[in-house]
Design goal:
Layout: E1 2-8, H1 13-26, E2 30-36, E3 45-53, E4 66-71, H2 74-79, E5 84-93, H3 100-103, H4 113-119, E6 123-127, H5 129-136, H6 142-151, H7 159-169, H8 172-186
Parallel strand pairs: 1-4, 4-5, 5-6
Antiparallel strand pairs: 1-3, 2-3
Helix pairs in contact: 1-7, 5-6, 5-8, 6-8
């Protein structure tokens, strides 16, 4: 299975991919994770590939191979859309973060992105995961709220196992917040 986690620098895509990889390893899968940073420190696009199965030889996902795209921002979902399989799933936050060309006035933020992806045949779950994170106590927990939603598509992995992975990966002082964000994301 191939999962892409896409977002903007500073949103926690790397922690999300680390947590996902951790829970999948705990389930006995061969897991490969690859990170592509781009201009992440300046709010640029960040993508991580998470591939798992019986035996995985390469961490890279090519166009048309992603089973799921987990997107922290709508424009990032659209930017990486061509990597999605024909029958693939996109889980995206409805939050909009303006890229530099929009900030400078050189471009406008595209409208109707979710509708366009649906019209192109993708199954798209677009929800306000920012609110789910804020209800847990911090807007920075959007990544964990999104993982909560993603976890619903892994029937074989119990919620307890996801929470155990949070305990193993997240520093202790942030665990309670992340458990709440995860639960809120599962309930979106």
């Amino acid at each position: 299975m191939n999962i892409m986690i896409v977002g903007v620098g500073g949103q926690g895509t790397l922690l999300a991919s680390k947590l996902l990889g951790h829970v999948l390893l705990n389930e006995g899968h061969d897991v490969k994770v690859s990170e592509v940073h781009g201009m992440s420190q300046r709010g640029g696009s960040v993508v991580t590939y998470v591939r798992f199965g019986k035996k995985i030889y390469s961490p890279v996902i090519d166009k048309g191979e992603a089973d799921i795209i987990l997107s922290f921002e709508q424009l990032e979902a659209a930017r990486w859309f061509e990597f999605l399989k024909k029958d693939g799933l996109i889980i995206t936050n409805t939050q909009r973060l303006n890229p530099m060309p929009v900030i400078t006035g050189a471009a406008e933020y595209p409208e109707g992105l979710v509708e366009k992806m649906r019209a192109a045949g993708a199954k798209v779950i677009a929800e306000d995961f920012l609110s789910a994170a804020e209800k847990a106590g911090s807007s920075k927990a959007v990544n964990i709220a999104l993982l909560g939603c993603l976890s619903k598509y892994f029937d074989e992995i119990s919620e307890d196992k996801w929470n155990a992975a949070i305990d193993e990966v997240v520093p202790e002082k942030f665990r309670e917040l992340n458990h709440k964000a995860f639960e809120n994301g599962r309930n979106v």
